[in-house]
Amino acid sequence: DAKTTQPTSMDCAEGRAANLPCNHSTISGNEYVYWYRQIHSQGPQYIIHGLKNNETNEMASLIITEDRKSSTLILPHATLRDTAVYYCIVRVSESGGNYGQNFVFGPGTRLSVLP
Amino acid sequence: NAGVTQTPKFQVLKTGQSMTLQCAQDMNHEYMSWYRQDPGMGLRLIHYSVGAGITDQGEVPNGYNVSRSTTEDFPLRLLSAAPSQTSVYFCASSPSPSNEQYFGPGTRLTVT
């Protein structure tokens, strides 16, 4: 069962911020939120991850609500090259345990950046 | 670093044929995994490995075998291909479960 819920598709104007929501209402205290994207038919690409604090890197920002039941990935200035399917994944971060069951890619959100 | 490499990029098989999809990484990652992606769907985990000599099943292991004799290589074997195995196959590696995964470019397999 997917632990996350994302909209099927979104549009964003080029140069504007793209805000991609994700619901993970059953997230556990030791589970991180990861974001990946898949451009056309390439392999998925890691974007960012976080536990409870907001995170920012050169690609994006991740805003996690205080109750951790939802999060938003923000691409601050979307370009045409950001058109892709974006996956929100929750998983534990410790080593060992049931590693193989922890990475679940749902259908994701198809983001279209429009000129 | 070449990262994660996969061969072949494309393959067409007839039902019942066997083949091995190759995956290699040069980052000395302990963890490697195989996913399949069907049209319009997310990725589903087939098999994974937490280190040389150790493998385990993922969500959809039936019809596939794996082995991990070295840290670098993690081949996926189809013993008797079926049309239901037509898909895009991705290999991934990571230094540990707490790190992000690095994906290969994929192998597009068609079984007729």
Describe this structure in words.
The complex is a heterodimer of chains A (about 120) and B (about 110). Chain A is mainly β. Chain A is built from no helices and nine strands. In chain A, the strands form two sheets. In chain A, strands 1-9-8-3-4 form a five-stranded mixed beta sheet, with no helix packed on it. In chain A, strands 2-7-6-5 form a four-stranded antiparallel beta sheet, with no helix packed on it. In chain A, a hairpin with a 6-residue loop joins strand 3 and strand 4. The radius of gyration of chain A is 14 Å and the shape is globular. Chain B is mainly β and about 110 residues long. Chain B is built from no helices and eleven strands. The termini of chain B are far apart. The model of chain B has no long low-confidence stretch (mean pLDDT about 95). Classes of the chains: A mainly beta (about 120), B mainly beta (about 110). At the A-B interface, strand 4 and strand 8 of A face strand 4, strand 5, strand 9 and strand 10 of B.
